[in-house]
Amino acid sequence: MALRTSSSFLSSTSSCSSLCFSFNPLLFSTQRRFTVSLSRSRRFFAMSAAAAENDGIFTSPEVAKSFDFSNEERIYKWWESQGYFKPNIDKGGDPFVVPMPPPNVTGSLHMGHAMFVTLEDIMIRYNRMKGRPTLWLPGTDHAGIATQLVVERMLAAEGVKRADLGRDEFTKRVWEWKQKYGGTITNQIKRLGASCDWTRERFTLDEQLSRAVVEAFIRLHEKGLIYQGSYMVNWSPNLQTAVSDLEVEYSEEPGTLYYIKYRVAGGSKSDYLTIATTRPETLFGDTAVAVNPQDERYAKFIGKQAIVPLTFGRHVPILSDKYVDKDFGTGVLKISPGHDHNDYLLARKLGLPILNVMNKDGTLNEVAGLYAGLDRFEARKKLWSDLEETGLAVKKEAHTSRVPRSQRGGEIIEPLVSKQWFVSMEPLAERALEAVSKGELTIMPERFEKIYNHWLSNIKDWCISRQLWWGHRIPVCSLWPFSTLGWPDESAEDFKRFYPTSVLETGHDILFFWVARMVMMGIEFTGTVPFSNVYLHGLIRDSQGRKMSKTLGNVIDPLDTIAEYGTDALRFTLALGTAGQDLNLSMERLTSNKAFTNKLWNAGKFILRNLPHQDDTLAWEALLAHKFDKVESVVKLPLPECWVVSKLHVLVDEVTASYEKLFFGDVGREIYDFFWADFADWYIEVSKARLYHSGDHSVASVSQAALIYIFGSILKLLHPFMPFVTEELWQALPSRQEALIVSAWPPTSLPRDIDSIKKFENLQALTRAIRNVRAEYAVEPAKLISASIVANPDVIQYISGEREVLALLSRLDLGNVNFAEAPPGDANQSVHVVASEGLEAYLPLSDMVDISAEVQRLSKRLVKMQAEYDGLMARLGSSSFVEKAPEDIVRGVREKAAEAEEKLTLTKNRLNFLKSKVLIAN
């Protein structure tokens, strides 16, 4: 997969969000960065100078118990002040550019923002360290609907309406609000560690961007791809504007199904059709009644006329169409094409007129007769009451409906025919579909290609006008000289008055579809696909898998989470998800990853405390002389160092490959497992034998060098995920020359010795086997025991070469650890363990336990265990219990009995083993 560069966008789709990748070399400006190169013997002493330069920004693990989250903001400001977020084109290579999906200027941080910031920042930091000129271009969206709504509410609190101010004064107030509150989301995004070049921050109403919008509008219009007409749109009565399909959220809500009689014209009183509707107030807009042609119940009425109730006898035709569902309601459909998307399409197919009964504010208009002026919901109540009085109301019953609500205001959206501006999408969609089919655009995970293709193959024309005062205004004056708009009798001024409040819709909608639109527009205006890859991730849900909502009270605030767990723990948790899959966010995960942060800190503390004194020049010369990038230097290392360095080099290759594939969950798990399972649990423990027990300065020196090298590499690999704690630890290391954020990524394909990995794994297996025996016999941790290690000569050679390590890790008495090719003479008085094929150990029982006392203890315990087991079996043997007790109770007793039987068997075996040793001893 070749990423030309990265453009990341984020907001939720039905189940996923997306990040996209593109290239724009015009975004770069020249910048130079100077690096000071120090000789090996002087690198350590540069640390004090750097610390002074940092002016207290960083805290060393040597003096702090744990990483202080309050340092995160200081570290961030230091990065920014040093210019590290700016692209460095002097490094060469393909630029990597991410235009931030601009969050709404009205917004405040939520977990969706935390997810996109984390993933995009991981990409940015990784590519920056890889040496690519890297730019993350930040910005905010003017959010026409949301911002206007916020300001109108603010004015309402002052007793002022938008209309009272006029457009110019209102937009002035919006700009004032933006200047005062619009930076909130930006500052919160910074708190997540977003390494954007804030000197290039953009706002979607900036003059340059506004000019680009006008240019795009005019170009599309000149090509005949923008037109104006009256079509069905989603109308927001409170906001007084059309909204996109993707700005409407549907929810299952309890409602009512109303059954109404429609009399058949010219028939008897018994000739009527009963329709079922959830919106009886729209009957004034009925232009037909339809039934299924195969519905025998109504065949005799097809071709006749129905009388619309409460309309003083208005007639509409009774038609047949297979679209009508015979099984819904009564199988009779009222067609109100001015107020229902499906009815609108059906009316256009059947050639029916469109009748609008709704004003823009949600009240009924003069077509509704006596009901004109009533709010749509008030009209519904009055209408039903009148239907009951006239005998036309049949019944009403509870019904769950799929209700469309405004994504912003939350009100119920009204389908309405309105004169708006539209973009013809089909020709644009064809080229966007080709981009995927030809491999110019890759969607990850691949299964989401179907969604992309389905949406573009069934795309509707895009309503781009909004009846708002805040936004990009439609450039009607610019268009008038070329006009093909269809009002030859009107002047430009008349035209402007006709659409005094229309602005262009440039909102995000649901991001996946916004990305598709970006692809279409990018191809249209540049001739090339703007992104090479689209990466989709899932939604963040609560620990129970529920979508976060204020209603459920399960919303987790990222800033609160950061205050308690730290930004690094939050980012690491979010990044461990699988592409395309939703992530259940639990406090347990956050707690675990906070512990990971502390483990990193403690590892750094251990390393720094065990380095030579800064004045010991000879020790530092020896330490810095060790190299790990050549085959000959790696194979000469002692076994533990050769093992851990080889494992690290394998890790670098695996992690780099996962970063390149955008498998961020794999990256996190691979680093976590190596650090915790290999480095912290094993090598740091091994190093204690070198540092505290060897007495050999050369052995200690190679261990110190390995600790610094490996830990520094871990910090580099982990930095894109956990930038703050890794930078703080990096600044404390004596070997670092520059900030971690701009340090070079570890090279791949470094040497590794697979044979040493296998050998050390044998040493690990032996250590685990001895530890298990100690645990089984409850040997006190401080007690050292003897051991006889039996293996073939080759194995004995490398195991015995690390006897100090084995003794330290296994708590063995170093003076009584013997190596041989055959079992010892007292093998029958020892516990025999097999670590691996050809590697065994014999551990004298007398070293671990008082055999006679242990036999007595186990004998007493066995009696008690047998009694408990017999009691459980007695209950299960009782037919009255098994047949009458609840099934879960019986199942629980069976499970306890099985567990008791297993423990009983193990205890008997151990007791018999100990008794045999007593007999042999006697």
Structural write-up:
- With 922 residues, the chain is α+β, with helices and mostly antiparallel strands.
- A hairpin with a 4-residue loop joins strand 6 and strand 7 (241-243).
- Residues 1-18, 20-52 and 478-503 have low confidence and may be disordered.
- The longest helix has 35 residues, at 887-921.
- Helix 16 packs across helix 17 (567-575), helix 18 runs parallel beside helix 24 (723-732) and helix 21 packs parallel to helix 23 (697-718).
- Strands 8, 9, 10, 11, 12, 13 and 14 form a 7-stranded mixed beta sheet that branches. A 4-stranded antiparallel beta sheet has the order 7-6-15-17. A 4-stranded mixed beta sheet has the order 25-24-27-26.
- Helix content is 45%, strand content 16%.
- The protein folds into 5 domains: 82-225 and 426-569 and 580-585, 3-Layer(aba) Sandwich (Rossmann fold), CATH 3.40.50; 248-406, Valyl/Leucyl/Isoleucyl-tRNA synthetase, editing domain (Isoleucyl-tRNA Synthetase, domain 2), CATH 3.90.740; 586-752, Isoleucyl-tRNA Synthetase, Domain 1 (Orthogonal Bundle); 758-849; 852-919, Helix Hairpins, CATH 1.10.287.
- The protein is globular.
